[in-house]
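Please, structure for the following, as tokens.
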Amino acid sequence: MAKITKVFIDFFVRYEELESGLNHICQRLDIPFELSKPPLLKISARNRNLNIAS
């Protein structure tokens, strides 16, 4: 029997409007938005030698 999962979304960002969507989300969260400065997330947790293009 399949499990039914409900998903609730506050805001949907289209790729075509990524910059304005991220800006809107950052404003709602009251955090600064700097497009030229992407976040560095989990950089120490990744294996940099992993070749995924094989």
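The two ends are 37 Å apart (CA to CA). The chain has one helix and no strands.
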